[in-house]
## 1
Amino acid sequence: MNLTVMKIFLILFGIIFLASCADRAAVSQEGGLAVSPASASSEETSEQVIVERWNSAEQVVLGREVFTQNCAVCHGAQAQGTVEDWREKLDDGSFPPPPLNGSAHAWHHPQEILLRVIDYGGESMGGKMPAFIDVLGNDEKLAVVAYFQSFWTDDIYQQWMQMGGTN
């Protein structure tokens, strides 16, 4: 793929990415690991649903290490973000790094898109995230996703799966 086509693709992706996230309300956060009981739904139920996650506990552990070394300075140690309103542009016109803990928009995007953002960075979407395509291996990138998804509630995780998840 030539450079012009790649730039056009990244710009279009950024526009779609931001547009799909603009109207979402923040949700509460709670930690989780590879498999955990589901959060209570609005309907009362006495049954607990086990939500199986795509990742292993080992991936979450590796992800924590990689995230701490490469991502936490901008996205926060617990993927909680570092600014109060991640939707509001900074003084330089760029968008701040969003929280990845389930309270922002990362859960709206399938794994393929999350990995593409890690690979190519966030400049095409108005941010400053650098590209990690030549910095992290595929196993490290997947581990980072596993780590920040460990903060997602089961409800958020199930919604992510319904919106494309690992497809």
## 2
Amino acid sequence: MSVHKEIKRITTHTLQEFKESGIKISMLTSYDFSMARIVDSAGIDVILVGDSASNVMAGHETTLPITLDQMIYHASAVVRGVSRALVVVDLPFGSYQGNSKSALDSAIRIMKEAGAHAVKLEGGAEIKESVERILTAGIPVMGHLGLTPQSIYKFGTYTVRAKEEAEAQKLMEDAQLLESIGCFAVVLEKIPATLAEKVSKKLHIPTIGIGAGSGTDGQVLVLHDMLGITKEFKPRFLRRYLNLYDEIQNGVKQYVDDVKSRNFPNKDEQY
């Protein structure tokens, strides 16, 4: 725990130091001020304003519908609640693929309007130009390989990626490419643990895993999943630390009962 006390602000440089000294990196998502403040005060290293907001905040089936404006709204709320963690924001689907100029414009808007510290993009060689262009503006970029949810319709399923030799080879090459062009870290999602460990050992920059085993340099989960606010999502890699769905539901039920039975407010709760 001493590590947490010494560091006033986590930077991309801090994460590099963590990797070099074997300290694991903790990362969670947040999408609003109140939650971000709690998560930050608990000592998390990195907060990801994920495009998973499309699922957990807006109720969409995939991450594709969320817009850049909506990501900026969530990110600015999170930034206002954070004093220690590094805040990384997902560039949403359609805001960077195939056009490096619009990728740069999107990243600049996130940094300027939300006050974020870095952006995250999904993909390898195919988004090289966009990553390079964003980096020329001095904006830190986190990569994301393996299961890339924005490509769900290409893959057709959220199953484990890179089990075949050819895909594993491409993932290793993409990871090295992202490092060579200047990404400060890479998320590895739902790939075999042995491959994730191999990639982590090969790279000088930190890797953050989700469903990628314990051999990565850090871990990330979606906040609503690990707190048990979501119920249906039950992948093998998810550990639920609380069961807030039932707790919140019970609290609301009690409130409803208290209002209906005239128990709330009581004499002490009025002026």
## 3
Amino acid sequence: MTKHFPFFLSFSFLILFSLQAFASPQLPDYIIFKGDTLATYNLLIEQYFQLQAKPNEGKLFGLSFRDGSSFNCWRGYQAIYKIDNDSLFLVDIIHCGERRNGKIDKTASAEKMKEIFNDKFSNDRVYINWFSGDMKFPLTNKVLRWDGVFYTIYEKEKVISISSGRVLTTQDVENYVDDPNRIDRKDKSKISDILFKKLKKAKWKNKNDFDCSDEYMVTIEENGNISKVRMLYSEEEIEKYYDKDEYNFCIKKVYDALKSLKFDIIKDKGKPIAEDIYIHIWVKDSGKLENWTN
């Protein structure tokens, strides 16, 4: 059997995971809703910049991650929104942590909003008519998924559906369907071990001497079933480093071994989502499988 893993590819993944390891949790924005001030992770100002083709406006206070802004506030600012009379407004743009410190420089905030939004700034606020979609905030501290930096999915959330700045509906949702006949997947870090235990039962020695030692992404689709398996290479890299028959054999082998697994359903904003699970396996010459995921 021939072990693959070109050096530059393995090195690239090492760099990728190192960068992820050094990523810092980011401070949220806030939304004032029915008298409560709640954390929210919707980047609405950034959406405005994109629509206005102003990519550099992210450094609103002359701060950025690269030139000394806080590691947990790479944007250099936080936004405060408010829902008033079923409409969504921007009411403040503040320095990182300013609200947490108990003081908000309202004059600086107003000047910054005037500078960015011009005549959209009226009555000390900006009507966010450029946003249509769902905003959410947590109803519990139980986290289902976190990207390690900013975006978080909570087990229970309040979702506000908005069209051009106007509130359409408000609902409380649960983002986890706990089915006793399916596999628990609340803890994402444990799923790769579940996959490995299933893969370990398969017979990896084969008459063609194909070697399936590699890194894979396994997709759990919206309904909790395994829908796809792929390797972490481009098509060009696969053509260069893999025999086509061997590649097809390994993808099918992994998929066939896992396809019977049925997981609980995870949602985001009350809507089922798919997710990819990374797994790294090594097949010894004896045919025994080792878990190299961690």
